[in-house]
Amino acid sequence: MIAFPHCKINLGLSITAKRVDGYHELETVFYPVVLNDVVEIIRATNADAPPIQFSTTGLDVPGDTTNNLCVKAYQLLKADFPSIPSVKIHLHKNIPMGAGLGGGSSDGTAVLKVLNELFNLALSQAQLIQYALQLGSDCPFFVLDKPTHATGRGECLTPISCDLFNYTIALIHPGIHVSTAWAFQQLTPHAKQKSIANIVMQPIQTWKEELVNDFEAPIFLAHPLLGNIKSFLYEQGAIYASMSGSGSSLFGIFPKDHKFTTHPFDVKLRIDWI
């Protein structure tokens, strides 16, 4: 069975408090974006096959494969459903990693959903969300797959009416790695006067002045190129531009079918038009 897990962007991101469990309270709107990886899962046919055989193509996936969320998702369900047979999981990686786009979270959640369907586990959406939360704070969003207002660690989810179908989104990934742990250390959490959910419900023309990602200020200071790319997006006619998550990808929302073909930067940028 094949799935095409997509990425997300954050429409605004506020860090409102530090929790006693070490996590942070946040508010954001997750918006699904059609830039996809590919996950294929098949039953292993060899009787003496290991529980899971994992392979990748596409973008290089660094690190120990045992830490990959696709593998962890299988192990999570296998622990509660021992009857799940040995499988082969192949991941074709297209979504940049460490980019604030949630690609790894989307991949791991896709494995949960495929295994649920492939082996008739009969898990409800609520149960899938609980498994997804064990993989990562933004994984539950990918169970819903629709524009969603998120609070708590990112797991308290409420669908929101937000439709960008009549716009074009440009994703720019500059290849800069930003440590999420470092990024959180730069912030002083505080409550905001206006909810992100309320801002997103306003006309998109108002977002530029009101819809803020808290991570931008410290990360742009450390990596000026990112701030320059955001300015470039506005110069090119973006209605709204922002960094996604804790970076380093940025996105611009443009009128439908808008294009730009050149950029003034002395670095190679990956630009995806959606």
Sheet with most strands: strand arrangement: 1-4-6-5
- Helices and strands, in order, run as EEEEEHEHHHEEEHHHHHEEE
Helix content: 25-40%
Instruction: Give the integer mean of the pLDDT values.
Output: 93
Q: Largest sheet, described in full? A: 4 strands, mixed
The SS-based structural class is: alpha+beta
Unreliable spans: none
Give the C-level CATH assignment of the largest domain: Alpha Beta
Q: How large is the radius of gyration?
A: 19 Å
Architecture of the largest domain, according to CATH?
2-Layer Sandwich
Silhouette: globular
Q: Strand portion, in percent?
A: 25-35%
* CATH topology group of the largest domain: Ribosomal Protein S5, domain 2
- Termini gap: 26 Å
Counting DSSP H or I runs of 4 or more residues, the number of helices is: 9
Whole-number count of domains: 2
Give me the count of strands: 12
Layout of strands and helices, then pairs:
Elements: E1 2-3, E2 6-18, E3 24-36, E4 38-43, E5 52-58, H1 69-80, E6 87-93, H2 103-118, H3 125-135, H4 139-144, E7 148-151, E8 156-159, E9 167-173, H5 180-185, H6 196-200, H7 207-210, H8 216-222, H9 224-235, E10 240-243, E11 250-255, E12 270-273
Parallel strand pairs: 5-6
Antiparallel strand pairs: 1-4, 2-3, 3-7, 4-6, 7-8, 9-11, 9-12, 10-11
Helix pairs in contact: 1-2, 1-3, 2-3, 8-9
Please give a structural write-up.
With 274 residues, the protein is α+β, with helices and mostly antiparallel strands. The protein folds into two domains: 2-159, Ribosomal Protein S5, domain 2 (2-Layer Sandwich), CATH 3.30.230.10; 167-273, 2-Layer Sandwich (Alpha-Beta Plaits), CATH 3.30.70.890. It contains nine helices and twelve strands. The chain has helices at residues 69-80, 103-118, 125-135, 139-144, 180-185, 196-200, 207-210, 216-222, 224-235, and strands at 2-3, 6-18, 24-36, 38-43, 52-58, 87-93, 148-151, 156-159, 167-173, 240-243, 250-255, 270-273. The protein has a four-stranded mixed β-sheet with strand order 1-4-6-5. A four-stranded antiparallel β-sheet has the order 2-3-7-8. α2 (103-118) packs across α3. It starts with a strand and ends with a strand. The relative contact order is 0.18.
